Amino acid sequence: MTSWPPGAAPPRLFYRLTGLGLSLEVALAGPRNWAVEHMAEIDHANEAADQELDEG
User: Fold this and answer.
1) Each residue of 11-43: pLDDT tens digit?
2) pLDDT-derived band at 5, boundaries 50, 70, 90
3) Which of 21, 27, 33, 46 could form a Cys-Cys staple with 17, CB 3.0–4.6 A?
4) What's this model's pTM, rounded to 2 decimal places?
5) Cα 3 to chain center, whole Å?
6) Do residues 14 and 4 lie in contact, with contact meaning Cβ atoms separated by under 8 Å?
7) Looking at the domain assignment, is residue 20 inside a domain?
8) Is 10 part of a structural domain of the chain?
9) How far apart are CA 22 and CA 38, in angstroms?
10) Angle between helices 39-55 and 24-37 (to 10 degrees)
11) Rounded Cα gap, residues 45 and 56, in angstroms
12) What is the DSSP string of 1-56?
């Protein structure tokens, strides 16, 4: 990852993946696709876990 300040006020910082970081795109496609396909189940599980903590 590279970063650089653009010289703006207020200060901001931009990030860009390097070639090495971009090479992870194929490797991460499987987990990303799985997460997208199971988002409703993931949300439900997170809500259930939050409720358990609240009821603690």
Assistant:
1) 777 889 999 999 999 999 999 999 999 999 999
2) low
3) 21
4) 0.56
5) 18
6) yes
7) no
8) no
9) 25
10) 70
11) 16
12) -EEE----SS---EEE--HHHHTHHHHHHHHHHHHHHTHHHHHHHHHHHHHHHHH-
User: Structurally, how many domains does the chain consist of?
Assistant: 1
Residue 5 lies in a domain: no
Q: Which residue has the tokens 């876990």?
A: 49
Full residue range of the structural domain in which residue 42 is found? 25-56
Contacts of 25 (CB under 8 A, 6+ apart): none
Asked if omega into 10 is within 30° of 0 (cis), the reply is yes
Q: Which two tokens stand for residue 19?
A: 């070639």
